[in-house]
Amino acid sequence: MKVVALGCDKSGYPALLRWGEKELLPFEEVEVFSIPCLGLVTEEMIFQILENSDALLLAGCPLDSCHNQKGSRGAYLKTKRVNSLLQEADISKKVAIAFVTSGKIGEIEKVSEEFIWREK
Amino acid sequence: MIIAERKPIKEIFSFLVPGEKVLVLGCGTCVTVCMSGGEKEARELSSLLHLKGWEAEDSTIERQCEPEFNLKAKEEITHADTIISLACGVGVQTLAEYFPEKKIFPGLNTTFMGMPKEQGLWEERCWGCGNCTVHLFGYICPVTRCAKSLLNGPCGGSKSGKCEIKPDRDCAWQLIYDRLKKENKLEVLYAIQPPRDWSTSHYGGQRKMIREDVRL
């Protein structure tokens, strides 16, 4: 399973790096990228990424303490919308979002488990 | 503006034959504003078609209801086997009239003429009955907004300001009363409205407007 992970450089990216350091990655291939804020992610960008991967994992600041205030909230709504379109179209790809801090990566692990469950 | 909503994705897929080239054609006016058929939605649908294995492209023109704009997209339209139009019913028909050799399918269901009430909520405001008298009703159209289209209301069935037919909607006549009261114009309600001449509405078949002063 090929997964692309985008993390905001305030919280998500450091958390993704910590997750990677644990060397317990459950996927064949994970590409991790840093972006300034998840608010920059658009539906169009998500679809483009999904054309060459099985899943997209977004990691950003917690909803109530987003560094840019509404970045995580905007990304959450877009994620929800894209997932509902994918589901309606019977496309098994998925995008998930984890709200994390650089020290708390539990939600990334939870979300990644969900990807594996879906693949089964 | 004209409000429309996207057809279920599977219905759209059912129009298409595997392997054909598909053009998703968005419209840059009303359906862009009601977020159902603009550039963004055209891109999304084209991406979904890609993921399902179709060779899909997207393009958005300013107004599909005007032939001149459709003709600007002639090259892309000619290149595609099938076009999914994300315009209102007017746009789809205009496109089909000017490109009769093409397979064209509607990607939206046109629903009504209305206004955006809040983010993600649109409400019907006009039926296009051809004989506007909203000024007599506190600028609230009873033809459109009263479930019974009563011109001499209220019906007596509303409860707590809500319609008895659709309890989640405001009673139009309550709104009319409230507005006229606020403006100290309640005496307007004593006027009995005569039966309406509906010949200007759509019941008489297709309507046509001719303006000799602007014809060439």
What is the strand and helix layout of this fold?
The complex is a heterodimer of chains A (120) and B (216).
Chain A: E1 2-8, H1 12-21, E2 29-35, H2 43-51, E3 55-60, H3 71-88, E4 94-99, H4 106-119
Parallel strand pairs in A: 1-2, 1-3, 3-4
Chain B: E1 2-6, H1 9-14, E2 21-27, H2 30-33, H3 39-51, E3 55-61, H4 67-72, H5 74-79, E4 82-86, H6 89-98, E5 103-106, E6 108-118, E7 121-126, H7 142-145, H8 172-182
Parallel strand pairs in B: 2-3, 2-4, 4-5
Antiparallel strand pairs in B: 1-6, 6-7
How many structural domains are formed by the residues of chain B? 2
In round numbers, the mean pLDDT of chain A is 87
Q: Which strand order does the major sheet of chain A show?
A: 2-1-3-4
Question: Helical segment tally of chain A?
Answer: 4
Are there runs of chain A of 5+ residues with pLDDT below 50, and where? none
Radius of gyration of chain B (CA) equals 21 Å
Biggest sheet layout of chain B: 4 strands, parallel
Strand content of chain A: 15-25%
State the largest interface. A-B, 13 and 12 residues
| Beta strands of chain A, count | 4
Strand arrangement, major sheet of chain B = 3-2-4-5
Remind me, CATH topology of chain A?
Answer: Rossmann fold
Structural class of chain A: alpha/beta
* Strand segment tally of chain B: 7
Helicity of chain A, as a percent range: 40-55%
CATH architecture of the largest domain in chain B: 3-Layer(aba) Sandwich
Notes on the protein architecture:
The complex is a heterodimer of chains A (120) and B (216). Chain A has 120 residues and is α/β, with parallel strands linked by helices. Chain A has a single domain, classed as Rossmann fold. Chain A contains 4 helices and 4 strands; from the N terminus they run βαβαβαβα. In chain A, strands 2-1-3-4 form a 4-stranded parallel sheet, sandwiched between helices. In chain A, strand 1, helix 1 and strand 2 form a beta-alpha-beta unit. Chain A is globular, with a radius of gyration of 13 Å. Chain B is an alpha/beta fold and 216 residues long. Chain B has 2 domains: 110 residues, Rossmann fold; 67 residues, no CATH class. Chain B is built from 8 helices and 7 strands; from the N terminus they run βαβααβααβαβββαα. Chain B has a 4-stranded parallel sheet, with helices on both faces. In chain B, strands 1-6-7 form a 3-stranded antiparallel sheet. Chain B starts with a strand and ends in a 34-residue tail after the last helix. Classes of the chains: A alpha/beta (120), B alpha/beta (216). Chains A and B meet through helix 2 and helix 3 of A and helix 1 and helix 3 of B.
